Amino acid sequence: MNKTFDIVIRGGLLYDGGLSEPFISDIGIADGRIRLIGRCAENNAGEIVDARGLAVCPGFIDTHSHSDFTAVADPRAEGKICQGITTEVNGNCGMSAAPLYNKASEKREEDLKELGISKRWNTFGEYFSVLEKKGIALNMAFLAGHGNLRGSVVGYDDKEPTTEEMQGMAVLLEKAIADGACGLSTGLIYPPGIYSRSEELICLSSKLRNRDLIYTSHMRSEGDRVVEAVNEVIRTGEETGVKVHVSHIKTAGERNWGRAEEVISLLDDARRRQVRITCDRYPYIASSTDLDSILPSWVFDGGNEEELRRLADEEERGKIALQMIEESRPEGYWDKVIVSSVSSEKNRWMEGKTIAQISMEIRKQEIDTVFSILLDERLRAGAIFLSMTEENLRRFLSLPYCMIGSDSSARSFDGPTKKGKPHPRGFGTFPRLLGKYVREGRIFSLSEAVHKSTGLAAQTFGLRGRGLLKVGFHADIVVFDPEKIADRSSFEDPFRMPAGVVHVFVNGIPGLREGRPSGRLSGQILKWNSD
């Protein structure tokens, strides 16, 4: 006898993603979608999943991810699935999988080689074909990176684009959107985005308006010039009318911790003026990016080879060091910069150690240690920066328009993506939010936390049919124990599974069973016009 439902999730406490009061119910799943919320007869189910005493909610949406290449290298995405994540938004910080032409393609070549990726592509359409053939464990939406547009057309020189180059970037953006990209991202502390003016970003962002797509920004500053940087994002929203979004909002550096309220006032005022501005944040007080991001911006002019040449030149290196010293970093700064990854085996011992510790070991000044690492690794070194305060973190997370983003690529517990000592947020973001900040810290209710992680995220990024427990919606669902959910990954040992996440379903297929990844690849590519 045919069963009405492939799976019935029995008797869980449902948090629907839309701020409704939780209620106990069954969920009937068939053909990858939610077909019934209510009482489901046992003889009508192919499989029954007992969720009594557990919370059931939409799968978490990671609004700020960097899995563009790791998804090709290893599609299992175990570090994300085990958190309850069912959907990622990728292509953030101006860095996306496509378009890749000319200098932009050359710059990402080492990334592809390091992950053992043999396939090459230029457009999102070609990239999506690679992903579809391989399969993916998670649903993935993609932003077009401004760095890719500029790198492909203008290159990595510090220059203003010509009229023809602006047209070239616009054509590439239109092609990316036609292929399914759901918006545009910028990374304005990284080359080549660091060389762009506001007018360039406004011009490109205006191309998003007629499809109501989103502009996201790793702002030009998250520290000393954070107020000006926030105003630049607001201006983009005001002048274009598009949705704008501040990535991983923060006020970094102790001397800027007191600016959080000013930043929040700017956002609130903009929203009162009908600027559609939102933000995301991860529940940690440490950030992570490339080690060379601490260098002066002029060092990046001309691309990687020019940067390496400057670092190797004694006179140029002296200029760089002098400027870094003049920036007056606070006492103990180098104790709060941790090397998270290197590419060479000879320097593997540095992973997990601070620049101060490494400097003592190799008997160099800290700035010289940074130069040595970057030269040895040919710039391929990552770092973690302990630069934020717990009070501000809680304040930003509590904003009603703040979503959750891990700012991490999807990794697995073995294979090509198990490298280095990456930021623990790649394995613990959502369990940490629900454990430390909701159950223990009570900064907001579980319903609000679920809404931020699901319904609000889907609405903001235009992910139709996702983010709610609703009949007809895709069956992206997480079952967890609200009394046990917690992160267990750390800076010393990041590759650890969280506690309390019991089952995860991606498009109705189990991605996690009884806390163990299933290896099923049931994710879909989510295009801006997907149903």
Automatic annotation (TrEMBL):
<feature type="domain" description="Amidohydrolase 3">
    <location>
        <begin position="47"/>
        <end position="165"/>
    </location>
</feature>
<feature type="domain" description="Amidohydrolase 3">
    <location>
        <begin position="422"/>
        <end position="508"/>
    </location>
</feature>
<dbReference type="InterPro" id="IPR011059">
    <property type="entry name" value="Metal-dep_hydrolase_composite"/>
</dbReference>
<dbReference type="GO" id="GO:0016812">
    <property type="term" value="F:hydrolase activity, acting on carbon-nitrogen (but not peptide) bonds, in cyclic amides"/>
</dbReference>
<dbReference type="GO" id="GO:0016811">
    <property type="term" value="F:hydrolase activity, acting on carbon-nitrogen (but not peptide) bonds, in linear amides"/>
</dbReference>
<dbReference type="InterPro" id="IPR013108">
    <property type="entry name" value="Amidohydro_3"/>
</dbReference>
<dbReference type="Pfam" id="PF07969">
    <property type="entry name" value="Amidohydro_3"/>
</dbReference>
<protein>
    <submittedName>
        <fullName>Amidohydrolase 3</fullName>
    </submittedName>
</protein>
<dbReference type="InterPro" id="IPR032466">
    <property type="entry name" value="Metal_Hydrolase"/>
</dbReference>
<dbReference type="InterPro" id="IPR050378">
    <property type="entry name" value="Metallo-dep_Hydrolases_sf"/>
</dbReference>
<dbReference type="InterPro" id="IPR023100">
    <property type="entry name" value="D-aminoacylase_insert_dom_sf"/>
</dbReference>
<dbReference type="GO" id="GO:0005829">
    <property type="term" value="C:cytosol"/>
</dbReference>
<keyword id="KW-0378">Hydrolase</keyword>
